[in-house]
Specification:
Helix content is 48%, strand content 13%. The protein is an alpha/beta fold. The protein has 2 domains: 127 residues, Indigoidine synthase fold (3-Layer(aba) Sandwich), CATH 3.40.1790.10; 183 residues, Indigoidine synthase fold (3-Layer(aba) Sandwich), CATH 3.40.1790.10. Helix 11 packs across helix 12. It binds pseudouridine-5'-monophosphate and manganese (II) ion. Manganese (II) ion binds next to loops.
């Protein structure tokens, strides 16, 4: 399905808020935000505060936020406060990756969209930039547990800002997979792929970009060529709140052992590991998590604004030639 205008989206499935529709029509900067972090990634009430804070962060940096979720079987792009509240505290929302869309819409469910789920809706609506915390990836010691996030990144023409991937994953295999699928991993002012809580995983990125403008140029050139893969931007967590790699590794090893002894499988693995690492580390990991989500929202808004500026310049050039 190729949508040229928000009004062409099937109304039985999509509901796009007024300010997002307006920004889409005017080509103004927009930042998509995921909601699995609200439903499955963070505890209540931090999840609700965070959901509101990231939206404010986007607005403060000259872009319109578009949090995406499924509410009573509709794909909502741009949530009302009350919808955010029900996702944050009701605890019945489904985790929405690609395979879950039909099930959740037909069943009139509520759902929090993962990176994969958010990418699907964002690209259909025409949003170009997306901020998240950490992407899914290849799991350790389970080579067939590969997050659908990776596949979706290979077929979604968006800039996705993350803090790398958590070291609960097999990070070298995750980066290999991204390379195979043609997804460039751009470090923001770094040569190292960050590991979510830690500023570095010790693994190299594809390129070190120094500014939001440079990232906007890279993405714009890919789109001009007609390439459909994402540009993954890896923004290290704020150093003041980042945790040392060896400390995080101890929590992860314990969490992985607990998952195994409790026979946790499938889509429950990631939320279980996230929760367990949070418990084991106390408040420190939660503080790092919240800070990096806001920092990613800010960088995403800056990139969206630069993409908008470039589109104006290109438009002027084309009109004048
Ligand atoms: N990693 C995190 N925090 C998260 C997630 C991953 O550090 O909240 C969530 C994201 O929504 C991501 C999803 O898209 O988990 C991946 O789940 P799975 O591995 O089941 O594909
Ligand atoms: Mn999985």
């Amino acid at each position: 399905m190729v949508i040229n205008h928000p009004s062409e989206l099937p109304k039985a499935i999509y509901s796009v808020s007024t300010d997002v529709t307006q920004a889409l029509q005017l080509g103004h900067p927009l930042v998509a935000l995921e909601s699995a972090v609200i439903t499955h990634g963070l505890p209540y009430p931090e999840n609700l505060t965070l959901a509101r804070d990231v939206e404010s962060e986007v607005r403060a940096n000259r872009a319109i936020p578009a949090t995406i979720a499924i509410i009573k079987g509709k794909v909502k792009v741009g949530l009302e406060l009350q919808e955010m509240e029900s996702l944050a505290c009701e605890g019945e929302a489904r985790k929405i990756s690609r395979r879950d869309y039909g099930i959740a819409i037909a069943g009139k469910m509520n759902g929090g969209t993962t990176v994969a789920g958010t990418l699907i809706a964002a690209r259909q609506v025409g949003i170009k930039v997306f901020a998240t915390g950490g992407i899914g990836g290849v799991h350790r010691n389970a080579p067939f547990d590969v997050s659908a996030d990776l596949m979706e990144l290979s077929q979604s023409p968006l800039v996705v800002v993350c803090a790398g991937a958590k070291a609960i994953l097999d990070l070298p295999s995750t980066l290999e997979y991204l390379e195979t699928m043609g997804v460039p991993v751009i470090g923001y002012q770094t040569d190292d792929f960050p590991a979510f809580y830690s500023t570095s995983s010790g693994l190299p990125v594809s390129y070190n970009a120094s500014s939001p403008e440079q990232i906007a140029r890279i993405a714009t050139m890919q789109w001009k060529m007609g390439l459909r893969n994402a540009v993954l931007v890896a923004n290290p967590p704020p150093p003041a709140l980042a945790l040392p790699r060896d400390v995080v590794e101890k929590y992860i090893e314990k969490a992985l052992a607990d998952a195994e002894s409790q026979h946790i499988t499938g889509s429950k693995v990631t939320p279980f590991l996230l929760r367990r690492v949070t418990e084991l580390s106390g408040g420190a990991s939660l503080r790092a998590n919240l800070a990096l989500l806001k920092s990613n929202a800010r960088l995403a808004a800056e990139i969206a604004y630069q993409i908008y500026q470039l589109s104006i310049k290109t438009g002027e050039k084309e009109a004048g030639s």
